[in-house]
């Protein structure tokens, strides 16, 4: 009995330490905001940098390094499972919101969990506590775990950027592309607006770009000439074609591009060799280009979690000032917490266990099983605050969301139960 208790307590304490490490990183963001080291506008800029530059670089390196023609089959179940659980969460959230007349933000809170910064930081802490060694003692276990979570994050972010605005009728502030779309207006008005935008962009680029002004002018004019030509073709398309292309366009974003480049680098043997082999074995890009991408990508997890702390700090400060008296309804708080920390683990852990032991659809990689069990688990994504900002929500509702997210991240150590359950189930699947 003592050995059984120890076999539970040791990984539980390790998972708890990993969760606390994430909370402490969030607390660093809170302190940075309190001491005026980071402001709310600067945190938004940092978040955009993370999504548009750091995350793509991380995807290129981690996906490209771990992906080979022999290992690509490992990632197919992750893509399928990520689509299934995200779509199921959206459908269930929509149904619950309508049936029980819950606040509109309940749907995206149920649909989108934190798939990027929190899992990446968590898996780093799990590796530091030695939990991952119980599944795989190979030296690349951390990089492989990151690559699995990153593929899931790619799917989750793409669905968020495509479907999130539709759920709350807005745009996500940290989305890779948040460009305004032209309404159906007269062609002369549109052309006038485009010409005015072109002139403003040319002046702004001349003042900010390090390139010669002549190069900046030519590049800006070429960009807007192409835009105007494309706009003419766009107006000739039927409505259904516009709607289809508009939906598909939401999936064209820097994380997807980074994943596609990682896929290319991983699957083309010549590119994989020059990017990731040692210098003596033909890795001519490894010491400089790959290292630079790795440096930029490694900023993502910690910076994003610190940004979460800054946002929470600003929300708590508004609460202290009494700017609004928004309350967190008990029903959505309990429902969302139960779904993310109880229901989804209760579904994913036995489901992946059965797939691993009773079928051949998953590779014989216990780390893969462990990651897939944890993919749907965790608090809602912080992008919920941005969706509320642009959806026209009133101040009271925004404060309710801020308080809800504060509570959700405060109770995020509950994920340690899912970590222990996933670990035990993966180990049992190995020995079965």
Summarize the structure.
This protein has helices spanning 2-34, 40-66, 72-99, 106-111, 117-129, 141-168, 187-208, 213-236, 239-249, 254-267, 269-276, 286-297, 299-321, 330-358, 366-374, 383-390, 395-410, 415-431. It is 76% helix and 0% strand.
Describe the structure.
- This protein has 432 residues and is an all-alpha fold.
- The chain has two domains: 2-177 and 250-431, Up-down Bundle (Na+/H+ antiporter like fold), CATH 1.20.1530; 187-248, no CATH class.
- 76% of the residues lie in helices and 0% in strands.
- The chain contains 18 helices and no strands.
- Helix 10 packs across helix 11.
- The chain is globular and about 75 Å long.
- The two termini are 21 Å apart.
Shape field = globular
Q: What is the CATH topology descriptor of the largest domain?
A: Na+/H+ antiporter like fold
User: What share of residues are in beta strands?
Assistant: under 5%
- Please give the CATH architecture of the largest domain: Up-down Bundle
Q: Count of DSSP helices?
A: 18
Number of domains: 2
How many strands, what sense, and barrel or not for the largest sheet?
none
Distance between the termini: 21 Å
The helicity comes to over 70%
Identify the CATH class of the largest domain. Answer: Mainly Alpha
Output the structural class: mainly alpha
């Amino acid at each position: 009995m003592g050995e059984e208790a120890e076999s539970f307590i040791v990984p539980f304490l390790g998972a708890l330490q990993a969760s606390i490490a994430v909370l402490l990183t969030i607390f660093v963001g809170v302190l940075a905001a309190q001491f005026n080291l980071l402001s709310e506008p600067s945190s938004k800029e940092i978040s955009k940098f993370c999504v548009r530059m750091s995350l793509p670089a991380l995807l290129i390196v981690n996906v490209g390094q771990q992906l080979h023609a022999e290992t690509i089959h490992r990632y197919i179940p992750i893509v399928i499972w990520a689509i299934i659980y995200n779509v199921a969460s959206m459908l269930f959230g929509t149904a619950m919101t309508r049936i029980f007349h819950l606040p509109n933000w309940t749907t995206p809170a149920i649909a989108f969990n934190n798939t990027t910064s929190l899992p990446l930081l968590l898996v780093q802490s799990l590796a530091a506590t030695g939990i991952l060694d119980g599944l795989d003692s190979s030296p690349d276990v951390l990089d492989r775990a990151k690559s699995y979570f990153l593929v899931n994050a790619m799917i989750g972010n793409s669905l968020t950027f495509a479907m999130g605005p539709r759920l709350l009728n807005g745009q996500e502030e940290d989305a890779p592309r948040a460009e305004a779309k032209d309404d159906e207006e007269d062609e002369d008005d549109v052309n006038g607006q485009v010409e005015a935008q072109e002139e403003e962009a040319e002046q702004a680029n001349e003042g900010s770009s390090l390139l010669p002004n002549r190069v900046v002018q030519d590049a800006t004019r070429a960009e807007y000439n192409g835009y105007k030509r494309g706009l003419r073709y766009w107006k000739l398309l039927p409505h259904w074609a516009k709607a289809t292309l508009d939906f598909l366009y939401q999936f064209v974003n820097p994380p997807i591009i980074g994943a596609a480049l990682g896929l290319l680098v991983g699957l083309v043997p010549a590119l994989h060799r020059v990017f990731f082999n040692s210098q003596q074995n033909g890795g001519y890009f490894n010491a400089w280009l790959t290292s630079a991408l790795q440096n930029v990508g490694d900023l993502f997890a910690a910076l994003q979690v610190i940004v979460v702390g800054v946002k929470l700090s600003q929300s708590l400060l508004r609460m202290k000032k009494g700017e609004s008296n928004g309350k967190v309804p008990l029903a959505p708080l309990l429902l969302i917490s139960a779904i993310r920390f109880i229901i989804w683990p209760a579904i994913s852990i036995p489901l992946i266990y059965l797939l691993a032991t009773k079928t051949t659809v998953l590779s014989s990689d216990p780390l893969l099983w462990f990651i897939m069990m944890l993919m749907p688990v965790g608090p809602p994504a912080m992008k919920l605050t941005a969706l509320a900002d642009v959806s026209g929500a009133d101040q009271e509702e925004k404060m309710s969301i801020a308080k809800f997210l504060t509570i959700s991240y405060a109770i995020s150590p509950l994920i340690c139960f899912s970590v222990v359950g996933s670990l035990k189930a993966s180990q049992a699947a190995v020995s079965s």
